Automatic annotation (TrEMBL):
Coiled-coil region(s): none
This protein's record includes keyword Ion transport: no
Keyword Transmembrane helix part of the UniProt annotation: yes
Pfam families reported in the protein's UniProt record: DUF3159
Keywords: Membrane, Transmembrane, Transmembrane helix
Name assigned to this protein: DUF3159 domain-containing protein
Membrane spanning residue stretches: 20-53, 65-82, 102-123, 144-164, 170-192
Domain of life: Bacteria
Organism, scientific name: Actinoplanes sandaracinus
InterPro entries: UCP010219
Amino acid sequence: MAQPESLAELLNGRRAAVDASLPAVGFVVGLVAFGQSIWAGAIVAVICAAGLSVWRVRKGDKPRAVLIGLFVVCVAALIALWTGKAENFFLLQIFSNGASILAWIISIVIRWPFLGLVVGGVLGQRTRWRRDPALLKAYSRGSWVWVMQYVIRVAVFLPLYQAGQAEALGVARLALSGPLVAACLAVSWWVIRRNLPPDHPGLRHPVVAEPVQKAAS
């Protein structure tokens, strides 16, 4: 298969992992450094998210996408402050991972796998990939790797949240961001390549059969 890029290159997995983990690390650092002060943790987390947002905009990212990430961190900080429980800073993350499990499974079952939608969108193919049976099959099977990524996170986060372990949640968030995302990208890429025929031209070139023209009566 003539395809030079990996999924990590196409989807910029390293950047996504940094954006996901840095504000959470900042929250825990502020929390611990200032004697379990949720206010300090929230302020450090928002500062980290704001700094990332400015940097992303300067790098050419769309302001709307950047602001959504900043908004999510602000909401997480407000939840922790409002409830007075540091572990609630991670509540949105737990819910989002749980919702992702359901959404990704549904996308596979209805034959619109999210992995295909994401990669197809990045490559500017819209849904052309879906008319290639081999790519549809490969993306569907690769999407199960992403389901397992979210299952692992929920399985780790939920017991720590129930135990009120905010610091451990921060460590887990860091450990299950970069390393887990990298592993997920690598394994799902392997699954995709494994399920494509040897002569398939690659992700950039869906093999779409031309519609058969009906003979004129």
